[in-house]
Amino acid sequence: MVANAQYETKLNLSIASGDLPDYFECNGVQLRNVIEAGLAVDMTDLYDQYASDFLKECVAADPNALTSASSEGGLYALPQPGEPYRNGGTSMYLRSDWMKQLGKEAPKTADELIELAYAFLNDDPDGNGEKDTFGLYMDNDLNGVNAFANMYQLHPNIWVVDDQGKVSWGGLDEGMKPVLEKIAKLYADGVIDHEFTVKDPTKASEDIAAGKHGLYFGGWSAGYWPLNLSIPNDADWEAYPLVSGTDQPATLSAPFATTRYYVTTESCKNPEVVINLANWSLDSGYVQKLQLIEPREDPTLHGRMNGYAGFQYEPAYKNLDIQQRLLKWQQTGDDIQLWPDDMDNWNTQQLFYSDHDQNGFSHKVTFGNEHSGLSTVQYYMDNQMFVDDAYAAAPTESMTENWSTLLALQNETYTKIITGEPVDATFDAFVDQWKAAGGDQITSEINEWYAANHG
Ligand SMILES: [Ca+2]
User: Fold this and answer.
1) CA–centroid distance, residue 130 to ligand 1 (Å)
2) pTM of the model
3) CA quadruple 91, 97, 99, 102: dihedral, nearest 10
4) Which of 2, 195, 291, 442 maximizes the CB count within 10 A of its CB?
5) Spacing, Cα 246 to ligand 1 middle (Å)
6) Among the CATH numbers 3.30.750.80, 3.30.230.10, 3.40.190.10, 3.40.640.10, which is that of 5-86+256-301?
7) What is the pLDDT of residue 310?
8) Phi, psi torsion values for 245, nearest 5 degrees
């Protein structure tokens, strides 16, 4: 049950021929095809009857996971929720050593953030006597634009729903005009690298490695890449929750994160098998681990306990839980129960302090303290700051055909505005073109889906 290209191709052939195994793992598009071909078992009752409380809790971690595996009231697969915050938990990563050098505090508003960006550009934060740093990281994927929009409660990369229950693509929102204008000003003033349009994330990361950036919008795992590249510069990155540009808190876009499904077919004698396997995987991998292992025991147990050949079902909040247990342990000194994974993580973090270890650095930035990537995610969850993608299912048929073109059009338009083309005319032309090039058709399909699933 390993997801790889060969597996996907083989499975697509099996779905086309109707010759499927008793149970298998698939993606959302494959699930839709299997359901439409009438090949999947309705496991609504099986799920109620056989799923353990822990499994149900894990599935519920993504509120849209079950919906996405359902069709016309029946549940046709066991979904494996991804980490809902994986793409959505964008933090402001700041170089605290630079802030210290300039006598600056972490910004609390969008205005203060912009002020800090100018200081990073103009005030020699690295103290080498040269004006050789940027204010805000940007690359040709427009990393940072989404976070900037989130500061104004806008969501250009997900489907959003209005008060009337009507769904639209967030990238078309008129409110993006002033946001893009603000970013254009940063570009015009050199706060943003004038060469960002020709730097993909890999190329642009070289400037992080060269110590030219101190402000980066990134997900919870940015400490593993690209921020790890700046270790030679003694960069001390800290993550902070996104600030707001209005009188309301920022809201964070949370793209739909459930992408894997376990299906059983009519030929299966025990159609509850995938549910039982998931129960077993969770129980043996997590519950028993908690019960059997003494707290703070030998971290080398990590690995032996982590994962079983063939089938692995994981809690979506695994990493967040590790970070939160370690933080609580640090802050309170309580005799809380740490798992082997926690101790392993903690010991790896210490390798940064003792040996400047790269993996230790990444662990520290991600799991470290109240200013780590995952800590920010917890803050967003505690304060209910995530806005879920209104569309939580496999791409529609029109999307399969046109979606990548429409996304490219948006990127191209935003880039033009940031680099100085007139905002109104450029944005309005984009909206018209987007709609005509398949966007209207897709929007109507999404609304149909939304009405059927949330009506
Ligand atoms: Ca400098």
Assistant:
1) 4
2) 0.89
3) -160
4) 442
5) 32
6) 3.40.190.10
7) 52
8) -100, 5
